[in-house]
Amino acid sequence: MFKKILIANRGEIACRVIKTARKMGIATVAVYSDADRDAVHVEMADEAVHIGPSPAAQSYLQPEKIIAACKETGAEAVHPGYGFLSERASFCEALEKEGIVFIGPKPKAIRAMGDKIESKKFASQAKVSTVPGWLGVIENADHAEKIAGEIGYPVMIKASAGGGGKGMRIAWSKAEVRDGFERARSEAKSSFGDDRVFIEKFVVDPRHIEIQVLADAHGNALYLGERECSIQRRNQKVVEEAPSPFLDAKTRKAMGEQAVALAKAVDYQSAGTVEFIVDKDKNFYFLEMNTRLQVEHPVTELVTGIDLVEQMIRIAAGEKLGIKQGDMKLNGWAVESRLYAEDPFRNFLPSIGRLTRYRPPQEGTFGDIVIRNDTGVAEGSEISMFYDPMVAKLCTWAPTRLDAIDAMSEALDSFVVDGIEHNIPFLSALMRHPRWREGRLSTGFIAEEYPDGFAPVEPDSGERAVFAAIATAIELLRRDRLDRLSGRLAPHSGHLKRDWVVKIDTDYLGVSIVDGMVSIPMEVDLSINGGKPLTVASDWRPGDAIWQGTVDGKGIAAQVRPMPNGLRIAWKGMSVRAQAMLPRTAELERLMPEKLPPDTSRMLLCPMPGLVVSIAVAEGQEVKAGETLAVVEAMKMENVLRAERDLTVAKLNAKTGDSLAVDAVIMEFA
């Protein structure tokens, strides 16, 4: 077994590998760029080596710097994680020349499966079911348009060297093929240094289901069940689960055996994933093989009890698999939510900045529930514009699917992140969505259910009552605390007031205290708008980020943040401003004029911090609704900004190459 390994990666996956290596008694070496000098993975590793400037192309994507770090530290092997150099055969070969072991498959398998065009040709020869498409070189947009017409719309345009949803476009018409072809090539070149793309038939209402495989150097191979990855946005996975709620035992076996056959055909030696798209009739088609560890591997680990990173290390060290196919049993259900630094209320645009508060839920086993959080950040860490926007992978396990989903919902409610925008509100809302809970999924789920983008979830009357109860309980403690301060001229509130008014956003609710005393822990009975009394119980203390307790017997975990004259309370994807007041204060508050936001309707604002790739218009130009105005790149994704209506460009405030902050004015309209 290896004594020391180097992790050629960063963030949560580097931390993940370090944990397993530590468990196995293996010393670890981290590498880091300028931006990651104070990163968590650098602190966790036994040693750390600086490898260059912040851009990945000048640090994490430099094989010679990784090899030099191995020589400097005496690392015997390299675990590449995912992304960066993990699927680059030349890197694997360069390591082998230096006598350093690559913890992953051999170059032959990486070349055969890592290139999407070549992998489909290989899979077809191996009699694996594939999607109809064009795998040859596509010369230009005219050629792409001709091919798409022959295949039949809709089609998928994909980067050959792609991954993570980058360099990928769906086209439903000729016009979309031309634009999608150019955008896919541009993204592919900037992200992977390879602008080749291919076109294949897009299966309508497909499910994305993948099979985890393990294979050693002694001819042994097996599959570890499947993962359902159909909840995607812009072809990037958001939520995954294992097993799939759609597959039956027969289909699972057929997909698994086909995945193993493909792995054996390329002499695969490591953990790998064979991805399929599955139609409504359970017909499945080979999509690609990822010759590396997958982001979503924890859900497989939770339902099988197998540490995939450990297996990768053991296989790379020449050991035989200690698991047989007949021993494989899937136990319970696991769900993974990817926490991204992005604003769900601005069409999921990237967000960067420092984590002023980062409090994930407690990990561990709690009765029948397991909570796991794979992360590479801590409070004070900076989310950089140079790398992928994923902050953490929150996972829950339970005996049943709905129990795992409910556990995820509560864990998300307990996950406090401040300093950046993030997608927890969306993930929380998703856990309540009937179609998700029923397992009626497709890769178009998000686009179909949120066609106009994700908007704040509005609470119903019962949920507003819960918010009002929490706000009242917090205000009672606040006032009681004030009354106990010494040296005051007179008590702030005096004896316990029984009647209150709670403003939830713009709605006023009357609250009466029926019974109970103000204390910690607290238990009081409240009547909302004259209704049946609700018992509110909690041991919350002022300053706690999470209000945990019960309202009318129902367990609640809500995030509370102080605001001027009130609170911001977030719960199950909903977020409200709450203000608990005495009735006379509420009367006066109703008379306050409403402050209106500034008018930005005649401006194009930069929706996220990013780099201006191109400006598509000139001053004085008339444009039509839907036409491209500018392209801004952030976190390796190109975002096309289009005109929302017919207009005339009056002034350009930015040019190609400019780095802009969020809400910077790119152009003004007449």
What this model shows, in words?
By secondary structure, the chain is an alpha+beta fold. About 25% of the residues lie in helices and about 35% in strands. The strands form nine sheets. A nine-stranded antiparallel sheet has the order 14-13-10-11-12-15-23-21-20. An eight-stranded antiparallel β-barrel has the order 25-26-27-28-29-30-31-32. Strands 3-2-1-4-5 form a five-stranded parallel sheet. Helix 5 crosses helix 6 and helix 7 (about 140-150) crosses helix 8 (about 175-190). The model has no long low-confidence stretch (mean pLDDT about 95).
Instruction: Give the CA-based shape.
Output: globular
Proportion of strand residues: 25-35%
Which spans of ≥5 residues are poorly predicted at pLDDT below 50? none
Mean pLDDT figure: 93
**From the structure provided, what is the oligomeric state, counting identical versus distinct chains?**
single chain
The helix tally amounts to 17
Largest sheet strand order: 14-13-10-11-12-15-23-21-20
Q: How far apart, in Å, are the first and last alpha carbons?
A: 69 Å
Structural class: alpha+beta
Largest sheet properties: 9 strands, antiparallel
Keywords: ATP-binding, Biotin, Ligase, Lipid degradation, Lipid metabolism, Magnesium, Manganese, Metal-binding, Nucleotide-binding
Domain Biotin carboxylation: 1-451
Domain ATP-grasp: 120-317
Cofactor: biotin
